[in-house]
Specification:
The chain is mainly alpha-helical. Helix content is about 80%, strand content about 0%. It contains 11 helices and no strands. Helix 2 crosses helix 11. It is globular, with a radius of gyration of 23 Å.
Amino acid sequence: MKNSKLHPASGIYLALVMLFLYLPIFMLIVLSFNGTNSTSVIQGFSTKWYVELFKDSATINALTNTLILAVTSAITATVIGTLAAVGIDKMKKGFVKSSVMTVTNIPMMNPEIVTGVSMMLLFVFIGSILGASGVLGFWTLFIAHVTFSLPYVILNVLPKLRQTDANLSQAAQDLGCPPAKAFIKVVLPSILPGVIAGLIMAFTLSFDDFIISYFVSGPKFQTLPIRIFSMTKKRVTPDMYALSTIMFIVILVLLVLVNVLQAQGDNKREKKGGAAK
């Protein structure tokens, strides 16, 4: 029987991870309920900073812009990424397929500052050709966010496609079902956990992106990370602690949801495998 006790070195490592990663977040949450604006003295429990947050029209406007951008870009990236994953899955193994996967992974491996600067130059160049001024705004942010979210959607959907029986769609078509309807009725339910996981990941990446957004955004459309960065040039007010707490809880819920969906998908596959045996 294997010893399940935690090794001392592993315990120290775990304690350090908890200390350096989660203690600052814990302090942030505590200070968001502080009765004063001090970062060192805690004087009672108060929700006034959450009230002040929703009174800040500029911050709320930036939050609204961020949510609109994150939802639209995540849905678009999920649709395109799912279709791309289906196409990649149907490719035969070889140079073309490996090349497509390499190109797909470039946005993930490329430094964000390089991606941001290159996209900014591209958008400005296209704008100068078309004779348009002030091209940077919502649509440039939208294109950029869809671009860097696509690989994550594809990499979430591809494993589910590989685990799905390739004969299911063909069998549905043999029974008279059109290819598009066969995909929606047969294949899509099987890969749905991967599609949802990709959607949530794309939303999360878009919601908290700063570096790429900073380069491709214009003065008329400001996202929340850019708004927070502009405030760091002065003293950050405690209502930003409240906002960060809300963002942390939302992202945590989304990550838990992704893990639950993946676990449910694994359990279904195990049950099917056991029934087949």
